[in-house]
Design a protein that fits this description.
It comes from Molossus molossus. By secondary structure, the protein is of the alpha+beta class. The protein has 8 helices and 21 strands. Among the domains are: about 100 residues, Orthogonal Bundle (Helix Hairpins); about 170 residues, Sandwich (atp-gated p2x4 ion channel fold), CATH 2.60.490.
Length: about 400
């Protein structure tokens, strides 16, 4: 008995099992099956191969470098600064041209500051006092401009006062000009030069048009007629974000410039060109919310301006002075993304095999409909599944698996 069992197991190793196919003459299920096949085939051809280019190997590890330059001059004449010509060295921070830079458009100017004692600004809560005991000497004013001297300065017929401080006096004024000082900056131009490299395919490109015309970059400007010119007008860039330049110039803002590279390396390299997207990134609040806009404080001297650096000057008597400016403006963040694709047999085979495997899903779904959801489902279920029992034939026991003939069933 044991020998027969082992022998049967050993012989079963060389058995070949095949499926039994039942052809169901049902037009509705047949139509459903063909529609599913057509849908899967359309998905494979249109979406996988045409849209997603599933026949390509891709590289998304983009290496990128950005160089920026801003050009433009403005002449202003104010009571605080007098006559002044603003050029790139004055209003662009940092001046060396990076992928993040800031263009000054408005200023709060506090000229001729010197180190002495004066009253702290009444707009600072920590500086409000009733008497001298509320101004401990040597203690800085929180979010203020200096160190307390120990005196509480009150005006006539006023109950509350502000602490006297030792600081750069007079302290900064808090009123922002309603008309931006550099409101004509909308005619400035921004030159954005982008180098990219896809290491997998050893492919490099730049967004500057390959031309031998030396005057091209001096005369072109990005637009529908010059899509490959890397020079952008500042006011136009702001308008592309859906904002008004004069409003943004007054209180500042943040603009994101996204450069997208989608390169099909099966085509000519000249067809690999960038697309630009412009979006305002700072959140805009209604009215004059303190959360709106973008600004920072920079210490500037009257001549020349060195943003973000404290530069001082002395009068004839040797007294040291400075001019303090609170700058409002537009910050630009340039972001580069991209992918490159090239034909490769491996992803092609994988996607074709996946599509063929999906065809089996259509058969599985139609089987469910055929044997469970239509009126004569019990009839088809009996034809698809047969009960087979073992029996004695000759000198051995035979196990019946499935009929290997092709059977046609008509309802």
């Amino acid at each position: 008995m044991g020998q027969d069992c082992c022998k049967g197991v050993f012989q079963s190793l060389f058995d070949y099992k095949t499926e039994k196919y039942v052809i169901a003459k049902n037009k509705k299920v047949g139509l459903l099956y063909r529609l599913l096949q057509l849908s899967i085939l359309t998905y494979l051809v249109v979406w996988v191969f045409v849209v997603k280019k599933g026949y390509q190997d891709t590289d998304t590890s983009l290496q990128s470098s950005i160089i920026t330059k801003v050009k433009g001059v403005i002449f202003t004449n104010t009571s605080e600064l007098g006559e002044r010509l603003w050029d790139v060295a004055d209003y662009v921070i940092p001046p060396q041209g990076e992928n993040v830079f800031f263009i000054i458009t408005n200023l709060i100017v506090t000229p001729n500051q010197r180190q002495e004692t004066c009253a702290e600004s009444a707009s600072i809560p920590d500086a409000v006092c009733l008497e001298d005991q509320g101004c401990p000497p040597g203690k800085p004013v929180v979010t203020g401009n200096g160190v307390r001297t120990g005196r509480c300065l009150r005006g006539e017929n006023k109950q509350n006062g502000t602490c006297e401080i030792f600081a750069w006096c007079p302290v900064e004024t808090g009123s922002r000009p309603e008309v931006p000082l550099l409101g004509k900056a909308e005619d400035f131009t921004i030159y954005i030069k982008n180098f990219i490299h896809f290491p997998k395919f050893n492919f490099s490109k730049t967004n500057v048009l390959d031309t031998k015309d030396n005057a091209y970059l001096k005369s072109c400007q990005f637009g529908p007629k010059s899509p490959y010119c890397p020079i952008f007008r500042l006011g136009t860039v702001v308008s592309w974000t859906g904002s008004d330049f004069q409003d943004m110039a007054k209180q500042g803002g943040v603009i994101g410039i996204q450069i997208e590279w989608d390169c099909d390396l099966d085509k000519d390299p000249s067809e690999c060109n960038p697309r630009y997207y412009f979006k305002r990134l700072d959140r805009r609040f209604p009215g004059n919310s303190v959360s709106s806009g973008y600004n920072f404080r920079a210490e500037l001297s009257p001549e020349p301006c060195l943003p973000r650096f404290a530069k001082y000057y002395r009068d004839e008597a040797g007294v040291e002075f400075r001019t303090l400016m609170k700058a409002y403006g537009i910050r630009f963040d340039i972001m580069v993304n991209g992918r490159a694709g090239k034909f490769n047999i491996i992803p092609t085979i994988i996607n074709v095999a996946s599509g063929v495997a999906l065809m089996g899903v259509g058969s599985f779904f139609c089987d469910l409909v055929l044997i469970y959801f239509i009126k004569k489902s019990h009839f088809y279920r009996k034809k698809k599944y047969e009960e087979a029992r073992s029996g004695q034939r000759g000198n051995g026991t035979v196990t019946v698996e499935q009929l290997q003939n092709l059977q046609t069933v008509e309802a």
